[in-house]
Design brief:
The protein has one helix at residues 2-18. The chain is built from one helix and no strands.
């Protein structure tokens, strides 16, 4: 149970810090979340 609470808290903090949900792509930011990026 504690692990779940900590994980959810960390996910929420990361979402706020990066400005995107996990797996979400946005035009406004240059960073990536979950390792997604355009491959050439």
């Amino acid at each position: 149970m504690l692990q779940t609470v900590v994980q959810e808290t960390l996910e929420a903090e990361m979402t706020v810090a990066i400005g995107a949900e996990k797996g979400e792509r946005t035009a406004e930011r240059v960073g990536y979340r979950s390792g997604y990026y355009e491959r050439t």
